[in-house]
Amino acid sequence: MTAATLTIDLDAIAANWRALDAKTACETAAVVKANGYGCGADRVARRLAREGARRFFVAVAEEGAALRQALGPGPEINVFSGHMPGDTDMIGDLGLVPMINSLDQMLRHLEALPGHPFGIQLDTGMNRLGMEPAEWSALREVATQQNLTLVMSHLACADEPDHAMNAQQLKVFRQMTDGLRAPRSLSATGGILLGPDYHFDVTRPGVGLYGGRPFDDAMPVAHVQVPVIQVRDVEAGETVGYGNTWTAQAPARIATIAAGYADGIIRAMGPDAYVWVGETPCKVVGRISMDLIGVDVTGVSPEPQAVELLGHHNGVDTLADAAGTIGYEILTSLGARYRRRYHSA
Amino acid sequence: MTAATLTIDLDAIAANWRALDAKTACETAAVVKANGYGCGADRVARRLAREGARRFFVAVAEEGAALRQALGPGPEINVFSGHMPGDTDMIGDLGLVPMINSLDQMLRHLEALPGHPFGIQLDTGMNRLGMEPAEWSALREVATQQNLTLVMSHLACADEPDHAMNAQQLKVFRQMTDGLRAPRSLSATGGILLGPDYHFDVTRPGVGLYGGRPFDDAMPVAHVQVPVIQVRDVEAGETVGYGNTWTAQAPARIATIAAGYADGIIRAMGPDAYVWVGETPCKVVGRISMDLIGVDVTGVSPEPQAVELLGHHNGVDTLADAAGTIGYEILTSLGARYRRRYHSA
Fold it and tell me: Which residue from A minimizes the CA distance to B295?
């Protein structure tokens, strides 16, 4: 039993969803793309459906097809990438709702699946997905006469509340959507925290559900325990790991633990990361290997059998900071080698 | 059909194995830990068994159990982490061979599975896994009277041929193993390239099989094609992506492609990475999102339907350099969302 254990706390995800739902007066959906931010889209979505979520978002139709398997008929499954070539059967047969991003997609959808519901994604300045204002002007009349179930856009800087881009995108979104009868959605987690002006009819929290910034009150969701394979004494001057990047300055006791960058422990985080033994932080030493990490456990007694890599002491954002990235990437990188456990009271 | 396609070239893996095998006069095993460096341990190992590989290495017993399913009885499956608590049934029932790292593991193995084969992993200075010289001196007599099938160590700096650590570890390995009857193994890909002194009886190539440095003659193995979701014109001064980190200096045409860091396109690589449309390199613009990347396709005609992210133009090391990491991490991060294809003539 050497593989590390990843425990996903479904109760925490449910609590985070309820807490974000309580911040608005509108409907709260849930984003479960990228396999539920690495946490397991099927388990997460089924749990949130029980909490009352009725609308889910995925990145591509293939994810939507798998999610329909897990959820059964009923909940609405929205696809951010819209209606792409080859998607028609999945969208039609499984009742997915594409968020149409362009004239091309609109024509494809109306021709292949007339009467089938769809949303519209608008670009309000991020220049990533969605129709530009001119394109939307030309299509708005047609779209609103069809089975339009949502009009949405996405904020580029919502994790920076004071960024001028937020108000700018809000203004453009209003200009593009005021007067429509279809429900509107602008905000993911960051937008929810910007306040009621940003909420409209549907919010779409993602990272906040999974315990990441900018929702600082989120309960931690992902917990990783890693077995210790071996503990050894090193003398001052001895090196540890690839490239001899760490040299003991004094006699030390080094544990080698059974996880590495193949488990999503991003290699860049080496020099600044800690793991925990009970209440004791233990510094990562040397380079993170594919399957192994060295940890300084000098003075830790009794000798640890396992360490906490992710959990109450080390949140996803703590690890992200050590790796120079964001909590989202920690979550989606967690990988397939873990023994996965789901916690639900 | 919006999910990106990851094609693993099994013929290339086989060719890389043969090329590395041809560099030595000894047995060539294959390292398929971390799901075959992300390429699929079952498919890779079955192909290499057909090429003549008779010995495979994995990181943990759980990987060994899955590999035994794929390979059937016959090939030897060696487990780097040795014999850990809870591993006995897997090791015994599935005929895995643990590389024993410590006195504790040795006692566990001999008590639980007397007569069952095992290897010994020695620490020659990397201070990661394996017995120290003093521990080995005390156990050597006992070990050699049992079913000892391999004695191995691992080089910390083999990708730097001129590093003094290589000769130092070689010297220590000889001191610890000269006179033994059991076969010896010191080298992975890097060590094979250091020359015959480092080869001993068994080599254990890993990254070289999968097309990564330091085996510069390796054939590329992983090919990623990503669909374009949408193409748009932006004016000078417009921004693309999260945080407005990229601003168009002139009118440009931007494609949004359907992959992101959830697919292992490491977020850090954003500003320095290119994708390819035919023979044309196209710069990544703005931050890499979870499921989406912006690409500058100004002047590319006809408008691309898909781009090459990994393949003949972009090797794993090219992407790794852009992300400030190593090709190994690109491979093991590739993730589960791809449509996976295996190429074999």
Answer: A128
- Asked if A126 lies within 8 A of B242 by C-beta distance, the reply is yes
A84-95 pLDDT, tens digit per residue, is: 999 999 999 999
Residues of A in contact with B38 (CB under 8 A): 262
Q: Do B290 and A326 touch (CB under 8 A)?
A: no
Rounded to a whole number of angstroms, the distance from the CA of B278 to the nearest CA of chain A is 21
- A133 to chain B, minimum CA–CA distance in Å? 12
A198 is catalytic: no
Q: Is residue B217 in a domain?
A: no
Partners of residue A329 in chain B, C-beta under 8 Å: 261, 266-267, 290
Residue A270 and residue A178 share a domain: no
Burial (CB count within 10 angstroms: exposed 0-12, middle 13-18, buried 19+), residue B287:
buried
Query: What residues of chain B lie within 8 A of the CB of A81, using their CB?
Result: 2, 229, 258, 291
* Residue from A33, A37, A261, A274 carrying the catalytic annotation: A33
Helix (H, G, I), strand (E, B) or coil at B304: coil
Give the model confidence (pLDDT) of A211-260 as tens digits.
Answer: 999 999 999 999 999 999 999 999 999 999 999 999 999 999 999 999 99
CATH (domain of A298): 2.40.37.10
Looking at residue A178, which CATH number applies to its domain?
Answer: 3.20.20.10
- Chain A partners within 8 Å of B87 (Cβ): 1-2
pLDDT at residue B45 is higher than 80: yes
Same domain, A57 and A168: yes
The encoded tokens of residue B158 equal 């083999």
Contacts of A216 (CB under 8 A, 6+ apart): none
Residues A206 and A226 placed together within one structural domain of the fold = no
Decide if pLDDT at A66 tops 80: yes
A342 in contact with chain B, both atoms CB, cutoff 8 A: no
Please check whether residue A271 is in contact with residue B144, taking contact to mean a CB–CB distance below 8 angstroms.
no
Q: Is B283 a catalytic residue?
A: no
Contact partners, residue A16, CB within 8 Å, separation at least 6: A205, A208, A209, A210, A211, A215, A218, A219, A221
Q: Which of A157, A177, A210 is the last residue of a domain?
A: A210
Give percent of chain A with pLDDT exceeding 70: 100
How confident is the model at residue B166, as a pLDDT? Answer: 98
Q: Which of B210, B239, B274 is the last residue of a domain?
A: B210
CA distance A24 to A46: 22
Give the range of the structural domain holding residue B71, as residue numbers without chain letter.
10-210
Q: Can you give the pLDDT at residue B270? A: 75
Q: Is the pLDDT of residue A271 over 80?
A: no
Q: What is the pLDDT of residue B272?
A: 79
- Give the number of domains in chain A: 2
Q: What is the pLDDT of residue A24?
A: 98
